[in-house]
Design brief:
This protein is mainly alpha-helical. The protein is built from 4 helices and no strands. The protein is about 80% helix and about 0% strand.
Length: about 70
């Protein structure tokens, strides 16, 4: 918070707005990074389906569902 307070004092932008902006940028950067990488879990799901490894397919789906 000291950094945000100093930045707010130097820029005239309220601390809560600076924190909000920083959090939005941080979250956006994480989403961009995730979209940029190859979808490993999708490849694993496809491979498990081709092997007819239904336990693995179910486990991956359960793992994906847990994130909802």
């Amino acid at each position: 918070m000291p950094t945000f307070r100093a930045l707010a004092q130097n820029t005239g932008v309220p601390v809560d707005e600076l924190v909000h902006h920083a959090l939005v940028r941080w979250v956006s950067a994480g989403s961009e990074a995730l979209m940029a990488i190859e979808p490993l879990v999708l490849k694993e799901l496809i491979e498990a389906r081709h092997r007819e490894d239904w336990t693995k397919v179910g486990g991956i789906i359960d793992w994906l569902e847990a994130g909802l």
